[in-house]
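Much of what follows relies on a compact textual record of a protein's fold. A record is reproduced here so that you can trace the correspondence yourselves:
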Amino acid sequence: MGRPEMALELLVHGVGGATPERMLDDPRTERITGDDTAAVFRRADDVDAETRPGDHRGRPVREAYVWCNLTSGNGTRALWLVLLPFMVVNLAHWMRPSAHGRTRAVRLYGLLVRLTGLTLTVLLVAAACEVALDLVAWQCAGTRACTRRHTWLGFLSPAAPHPGWWSLPGRRLALAAVVPAALTGLLWYLSHRTWRAYESQLPLTGPVEPDEVTSPNALGRPGFWYGRRLVARLRAAHTAAGLLTVAAAVGISAARFDRRPGGPVPLDVLGRLLEGALVAGGIAVVWVVCRRGRSERRPDRELDAGLVRGLPLGALALLVLTAVYAGWDRPGWQSAGRLPGDATFGGLALVQGLLVVALAGVAHLLHRTGPDTRAAMRGLGGPAVAMLACALGGVMSGGVAQRVADWLDGTRATLDGPPALLTWQASVIPAVLLVLLALCGRLARQAWQLRRAEVAAVERTYPDEPKDAARTRRIATARAMATLTDRAPLVVAVTSLTTLLLGAAALVGALATGKTPSGAAAGAPPFVHGAAQTAQALGSWLIGLGFLLFVTWGRRAYKDPSARRTIGILWDVGTFWPRAAHPFAPPCYAERAVPDLTWRMATWTRATGGRLVISGHSQGSVLAAAAAWQLSAADRRRVALLTYGSPLERLYGRWFPAHFGPAALASLHDEVDCWRNLYRATDPIGGPVRVTGEDAPGVDREALLDPLAYGRTERHPLPAPILGHSDYQADPAFAEERRALLGRLQPGVPTPRPAGERMSRTGEMPAAGEV
């Protein structure tokens, strides 16, 4: 007799993570491959299972892939909250609609998102310059009353009894430029370090050289999960953009002073040369960002040389020259008013609005070529999310500037404060919140109406049980609340459209008047003037409160493991995709997890000749699908998928239609050996996959009962909980489906039952061919 064929069950946990002991239901587990960041575990009794294949006849070897430390490990990752706008704009890149023969439109879509990401970097660094250079070094250090309140700025004050060497305006600016320059350097360092730690894993198409990948989906391309060249190129461009922004903030004010009539000619010439160099550097940055995007048909291992590699060093050298130029002694130069930053913030807001509108036009064109009725917002999810990223950047920038200005000046009004546009943007926040409150009220009303309808559905689901009104309402409420996930496109659409319109109104108000809302309404009727003052004060307070809550949450997550776990859940959803639009976004954990799973599945099947079931819960099902796409066609035919609580269609299919749309999921169903999906009506994340085969039943089993028992029974003497998104293994259907999948993979299984015969909810065992 030949060697018995083995079967492997590879478990992949979902959002929030899990321990190998819980996944394998055994307190004794051992790591068989991997490291402290991500690893594969087995039961201690199964470590050498390959040497004893006969001991596992009829049952699989179980393994658990634990990847939770990729997103919610140590406390320092809570600081990634600062990178939230970058993460959101990176998501917009992957939300484009499906494209059929529109290669140029796809490239234009990616280009517009990359340019939007570049404006966010400039905005963040400009906000740091506004705080450090304008508010602190220019306004406060140049005002006697402010330096009296903040004595630590005394060595910068020109009004001190004995002004020091740093008291000249240009030298104060040069010294303060260390703060935004250090911020830019920190972003560069984090991007470089996280790439090496998380995303530098070679895909399976490296040394192993498997068969040609034949999956038509982009996630199956050899270079999809290895974008080293693009990330390095964007990192160089964004780092240079940040340093050039700092150089412009330092040197433009000095150059304007030198251009006055009778000014020193050498300094004037040098100032114009530096301004020309800044413009040339900005053009070079934009050109680098506009170059070719991702190369997914092969791993992009080579790095760009020449201009791309030298761009950050050139920008740093220009910053040093500008600091030396600004620090030159200029008799009569005093710091008065604000630095010329209003035009910068206004220009950034205008460019961001135009980019979002253009992105919406391209997305609409792509959606029309291949309409997808399930796509979020009819293909406009990407532009809407890009608008939210810009709004987040504006709120964070304005919040920092407003809080620092209040801290420096208090209520004495001795400083001019931040640019007027930031105050206008703060003033529209109450209006945005009112719109969101009205929308939340509407959604709550719809949920209440749906709960009333679900009461009757619950009674039909448990027809023979004695009715308990409170129990029925709890189950109906869980079902109704689970449907709120499907309302997310409406919330995003309303928020982004409101933000775009009110942001445009704020930009027009700031550019037209050059004053704050209360100042612009000074001559208006008392009611209008009072409303403007109220909106300005309330918006400033809200934006400051939001920023303080943001920082407090980050600090709490640094110390509190439970809060850190919550932040890890956010990153589980937001950082699945590679960094294609912004290099400073939090690292993509899938560029480590997907190669891990692919290597494990491919090497095990080839070494043992066995077959395996990859079992994924929640986000683990997305990783499982992505890993299956990366396998060669021959390896995929030896793999079965078991997904439960899966957001593959409900979230990823709707928001990322180009990669998880109906065609992509149908192709996965055809390429793997078999696939079954479990979900509950009470699950707010998981849902049906909605894929049917030509000669076999669909992927989805009908919705599982939740709770398993309505009241107390002999099998459930205590009240059964409403499980929602968790503990799918507690349902007997999970063991049935797993057993059926393993039976399908084993040689010599019986012929399948007719396709029309389906598994019943009562627990009838399915035939192997039915899965």
Observations:
- The chain has three domains: 7-67+589-770, 85-130+165-331+345-390, 429-574.
- The domain at 7-67+589-770 is CATH 3.40.50 (Rossmann fold).
- The first helix runs from residue 20 to 24.
